[in-house]
Specification:
The complex is a heterodimer of chains A (about 140) and B (about 190). Chain A is mostly helical. Chain A contains 6 helices and no strands. Chain B is mainly alpha-helical and about 190 residues long. The N and C termini of chain B lie far apart (about 40 Å). The relative contact order of chain B is 0.11. Classes of the chains: A mainly alpha (about 140), B mainly alpha (about 190). Chains A and B meet through helix 2 of A and helix 2, helix 3, helix 5, helix 6 and helix 8 of B.
Chain lengths: ~140, ~190
């Protein structure tokens, strides 16, 4: 009884006995590479089972997504980086590479409707007369224009 | 390898189920010593403990789909180790009549092996043999493998107080058995 009181600590609990040095029971104590060889032996015995599992594992949707994501994520990151670079370049005031070429001039609608005008051709006189042409002349002009 | 050491058991189990050898290798690396300690506490002999622990890993891989809670892989594995060790001892008992020494093999003695160290190991072996199986298991997992009370409690599925109790009496018993003749080991309780 007195021994128990003597061995109690301030919190009232008996302190646990000091750890026993069991190091001599550890195989590594006598063979430094023991655990490495242990693991290798286990793995060589387990390899057929692992191979069987790898073969029989069905490819699910998540596996496909995971496999794709491994490729997709870096590619998307590179693409985003390139895009960000190009946008940044364009907003710097310099001309974006794809706008360096001068645009083609547009074709005017009037040029299509009035062929020959751009060549300096003259409009027939009867069309510019000031209301003097009679109906027959106009009809003739329409038919032969 | 470095990143796998950070991965939890459940993820390693999931990947091992798919046949990833690196994942299973990490589980082996993580629990090889604990498996050996438990096997040693049952068999009492190095070679049997080694065989039982190695076989247990292979059995665990075969039955990995039966591990319902991969987060508690360690406890599940140690149950397999315990059962394999007991089965092994039953077979050994049928084959042999002599007791199996609780000692390390002589296949890798090394030139540095000293009589003093061998004598210490023998004494330690005999002392540990005096404990109950569960006391041996707790003592070896804590003082040899370095597991915490909480880890042992979780993995052996027993209350932490029970773990402390087993450890307390196991240490006390071993220390008293290791104490020199004429001493009752009282001086060691102060540690």
């Amino acid at each position: 009884m007195s021994e128990r009181r003597w061995s109690r600590d301030a919190s009232g609990r008996a302190p646990p006995p000091a750890p026993v040095d069991l190091e001599p029971l550890d195989p590594r104590c006598r063979d430094a590479g023991y655990w490495l060889r242990f693991e290798r032996r286990v793995m060589s015995a387990a390899l057929p089972g692992l191979a069987r599992r790898a073969r029989s594992t069905p490819t699910g949707v998540s596996d496909v997504v995971e496999a794709w994501s491994r490729l997709l994520v870096p590619v998307a990151a590179v693409a985003a980086g390139v895009g960000a670079f190009l946008v940044t370049e364009a907003t710097d005031g310099s001309v974006a590479p794809w706008r360096a070429v001068a645009p083609e001039p547009g074709v005017e609608v009037e040029a299509i409707l009035l062929p020959g005008e751009e060549d300096g051709g003259q409009v027939p006189a009867f069309l510019v007369s000031e209301g003097t042409a009679d109906e027959d002349v106009v009809q003739f002009a329409i038919e032969h224009f | 390898m470095g990143e796998l050491s950070e991965v939890g058991d459940s993820e390693l189990v999931r990947r091992s189920r798919r046949g990833e050898d690196v994942a299973f290798g990490e589980l082996v690396r993580r629990y090889a010593r604990a498996a050996y300690s438990v096997a040693l506490s049952v068999t009492g002999g190095h070679e049997d403990a080694e065989d039982a622990a190695q076989e247990a890993f292979v059995v665990a891989l075969d039955k990995l789909d039966e591990c319902r809670d991969p987060g508690r892989f360690a406890g599940w594995l140690l149950t397999i180790v315990r059962n394999r060790s007991r089965n092994l001892m039953c077979h050994e008992a049928l084959r042999k009549t002599e007791t199996i020494p609780f000692s390390l093999p002589s296949r890798a003695p090394g030139p540095e092996r000293s009589r003093e160290q061998a004598a210490l190991r023998d004494r330690l072996t005999k002392a540990v043999q005096q404990l109950s199986e569960v006391q041996r298991e707790v003592l070896l997992l804590h003082d040899l493998e370095g597991w915490k009370h909480r880890e042992i409690a979780e993995r052996l599925e027993m209350p932490p107080g029970t773990v402390r109790s087993h450890l307390h009496y196991a240490r006390k018993r071993v220390r008293s058995l290791l104490a020199p003749a004429g001493s009752d080991g009282r001086e060691e309780r102060t540690g």
